[in-house]
Design a protein that fits this description.
Blueprint lengths: L2 E5 L5 E5 L4 H10 L1 H16 L3 H7 L1 H7 L13 H27 L2 H20 L4 H29 L5 H26 L6 H7 L2 H10 L7 H6 L3 H12 L5 H14 L5 H4 L6 H16 L2 H14 L4 H12 L1 H16 L1 H26 L8 H19 L2 H12 L5 H30 L2 H19 L12 H4 L18 H15 L1
Antiparallel strand pairs: 1-2
Helix pairs in contact: 1-7, 1-8, 2-7, 2-8, 2-10, 2-16, 3-4, 5-6, 5-7, 5-22, 6-7, 6-9, 6-10, 7-8, 7-22, 8-9, 8-17, 8-18, 8-21, 13-25, 15-21, 15-22, 16-17, 17-20, 18-19, 18-20, 19-20, 19-23, 21-22
Length: 518
C-alpha cells in the first residue's frame, strides 16, 4: 500500500495512507465536466460572433461594417452591444460565484455543482431559441450564473478529495476539460457556420450537452469528507474518506480535517476574517493569480480569435479553421501540465510560461504594427506566422497560468476561509474577464497593435510575482499550508508574527503537532 509520507513544520514525519482510487478518478472526471461547460461557452462565443448569419440577425450594424471594403481593419467589430453579448456572462458569474460560495459551505460542493448544471441548461435553451437581443442576453446571464456556481465548487471539490501527492494533476483535469470544451466548440462552429440561417442556434444550444453530463454525472459522485464533516455528518465523512482513500487507516487525516472544521466553526464571518492580517497572504496571492490569468491576454486570444483572424483578412471559414488549429494545442499543453505539475512544482511552470508568452505575444504585436494597416490585407505568410505564434502562446498558457490559476487558489486557503477566499479569487477572475471582454474590441480599434504590447508589460510583472512572492505548494497537504508554506516564506511570514494569527488557530496547530507525535 503506497503511503504519503510528509514532514510538518515541527520536523515530525507523518504518514497519511492514500491510494489513487477509481472513486477519486471518476469523481474528478465527472466534476471536471464543469470545466467542459465553461470551455464550451468560451469557444462558442468567439465563433458565433464572427458568423454572418448571427451578426445579420442581432448586430446588423456590425454586419454592414464588416463587409464594407474601406472599413478600418481594427474597428470592424467595435460594438459595445456585441461586446456585451460576450461579457454579460461574466457579470452573472460574479453574482453566481458569491452565492455559490455560501451554497458550498451550507449545502455542500455536490449540490452546488448540480445547481450550476441546471442554470447552464436553462441558459443554453434560451440562447438556442433566442428571438431578440433581450432573450439572447437573458440566456447569457443564466449561463454566467451556472459558470459562477460551477467554477466555485469544482476546483474545491477536486482539491478536497485528491490525495496530496496527486492533487495538482487531478485538479488540472478541470482545466483540461476547459480546453477540450473550447476545441469542441470550435469544431462545432466550423460545421454550423455553413448551415444558414440556423447554424448559430445549434452552436449555442450545444451548451446543453456538457450541462447534462454534469447534472447526470453528479448523481453518481460522493460529497467531499471535508464538506460532510463541516455540516455535522461525521460518520458519513469518515466512511467517505475511507472509500476515496482506499484504506481503513485514515484516522490521522480524519482527525486533522475534524480539528480544522472545529476551528472553522468559530469563524462566524469568513469573508470578514479574510481581511485580518493572517488571511492577507492567501487573499492577495489567490486574487492576483486570477487577475493575472486574464492579463496574460488569454481572453483576447480565446474570446475573439476568429474575429482577430478575420481582422487580418482571413475569410469566415478560414478564421474558424484557424481557431480549431490553435485550440488543439491547449489540451495537449494541459495534459503536459498534469504530468509535470507535481514533479516540477507550480512556480517553475509559471515563470517559464511568462517568458514564452511574452515573446510570442510581442511578436504578434510587431507583425500587426508593421503589416496590418487600416484597410489593407496582411500577406498570407504573415497571417500563418501569427497563427503559429498564437499556438506558442496558447501552449505556454495551457501548462501554466491557465490550469494553475485555478489550482493554486483552491489549495492555499485554510478551511475556515476556504470557500469565501476561493470565491473572492474566482470573482476577481470574472471581473477582469468582463473588463477585458467588454473593452478589447474598443482597445483594438483605438490602440491597434499597442493592445498586445500592453499585455506583454503585464507578463513581465507576472513573472516577477511568481518568482519572488508566490510560495511553492507542491505536495503539501491542503490543511497544512499555513504552517509549512506561508509561515516559511521570506515575505509572507511577517504576517504571522503577532496576535492577529488568532489564538484558536495556534491552538489547533499545537493540537495537530501533539497528535502527530502521539
Amino acid at each position: 500500500m503506497p503511503e504519503l509520507t510528509l514532514v510538518d513544520g515541527s520536523g515530525v514525519r507523518r504518514d497519511l495512507p492514500a491510494k489513487l482510487t477509481w472513486q477519486v478518478i471518476v469523481c474528478t472526471v465527472i466534476a471536471a465536466c464543469g470545466g467542459l461547460m465553461f470551455g464550451y461557452d468560451i469557444g462558442i462565443s468567439g465563433g458565433v460572433t464572427g458568423m454572418d448569419m448571427f451578426l445579420e440577425k442581432f448586430f446588423p450594424e456590425v454586419y454592414v461594417k464588416k463587409h464594407q471594403a474601406k472599413a478600418n481593419n481594427y474597428c470592424k467589430f467595435n460594438s459595445q452591444l456585441l461586446q456585451l453579448f460576450t461579457s454579460s456572462l461574466y457579470l452573472a458569474a460574479i453574482v453566481g460565484c458569491f452565492i455559490g460560495s455560501i451554497c458550498c459551505k451550507k449545502r455542500g460542493r455536490k449540490p452546488t455543482m448540480q445547481i450550476a448544471s441546471v442554470f447552464f441548461l436553462v441558459g443554453a435553451i434560451l440562447n438556442a431559441a433566442a428571438l431578440n437581443i433581450g432573450m439572447l442576453i437573458a440566456g447569457r446571464l443564466c449561463l454566467g450564473a451556472g459558470i459562477g456556481f460551477g467554477n466555485q465548487a469544482v476546483p474545491l471539490f477536486i482539491s478536497e478529495i485528491a490525495p496530496a501527492r496527486y492533487r495538482g494533476g487531478l485538479n488540472l483535469c478541470f482545466q483540461l476539460l476547459i480546453t477540450i470544451g473550447i476545441l469542441t466548440a470550435n469544431v462545432i462552429n466550423y460545421a454550423t457556420s455553413k448551415l444558414y440561417p440556423y447554424g448559430w442556434r445549434i452552436s449555442l444550444g450545444g451548451a446543453a450537452c456538457p450541462a447534462l453530463l454534469l447534472l447526470l454525472g453528479s448523481l453518481m459522485i460522493v460529497e467531499t469528507p471535508t464538506s460532510l464533516i463541516e455540516r455535522g455528518k461525521n460518520e458519513e465523512g469518515l466512511y467517505t474518506l475511507k472509500k476515496i482513500r482506499g484504506v481503513d487507516n485514515v484516522d490521522k487525516e480524519y482527525e486533522e480535517i475534524s480539528q480544522a472544521v472545529e476551528f472553522s466553526r468559530q469563524i462566524r464571518h469568513p469573508f470578514k476574517n479574510l481581511w485580518k492580517q493572517s488571511g492577507r497572504p492567501q487573499l492577495v496571492c489567490g486574487a492576483l493569480i486570477q487577475i493575472f490569468q486574464q492579463f496574460t491576454g488569454i481572453s483576447v486570444v480565446m474570446l475573439y480569435a476568429p474575429v482577430l483572424f478575420q481582422t487580418m483578412g482571413l475569410g469566415e471559414n478560414a478564421s474558424l479553421m484557424s481557431a480549431i488549429m490553435t485550440n488543439t494545442v491547449k489540451p495537449i499543453g494541459t495534459a503536459f501540465a498534469i504530468v509535470v505539475v507535481d514533479r516540477f512544482g507550480r512556480r517553475a511552470l509559471l515563470i517559464e510560461a511568462s517568458i514564452q508568452m511574452f515573446i510570442s505575444l510581442g511578436a504578434i504585436g510587431v507583425i500587426l504594427a508593421v503589416h496590418l494597416h487600416s484597410t489593407n490585407v496582411v500577406a498570407k505568410h504573415y497571417a500563418v506566422l501569427v497563427i503559429v505564434l498564437v499556438c506558442v502562446f496558447l501552449a505556454g498558457f495551457a501548462w501554466s497560468w491557465g490550469p494553475l490559476g485555478w489550482l493554486i487558489p483552491s489549495e492555499i486557503f485554510p478551511i475556515e476561509t476556504r470557500s469565501a477566499g476561493f470565491s473572492i479569487a474566482v470573482i476577481m477572475n470574472f471581473v477582469f474577464t468582463f473588463l477585458v471582454a467588454q473593452t478589447f474590441l474598443t482597445m483594438l480599434c483605438h490602440m491597434r497593435a499597442g493592445t498586445f504590447f500592453l499585455y506583454c508589460a503585464m507578463l513581465v510583472v507576472m513573472c516577477l510575482f511568481a518568482k519572488y512572492f508566490l510560495p511553492e505548494t507542491k505536495g503539501i497537504p491542503i490543511d497544512e499550508m499555513v504552517e509549512r508554506v506561508w509561515k516559511q516564506h521570506w515575505f509572507w511570514k511577517r504576517y504571522y508574527k503577532d496576535h492577529d494569527t488568532g489564538k484558536g488557530g495556534l491552538e489547533i496547530q499545537h493540537k495537530r503537532k501533539e497528535n502527530t507525535i502521539a
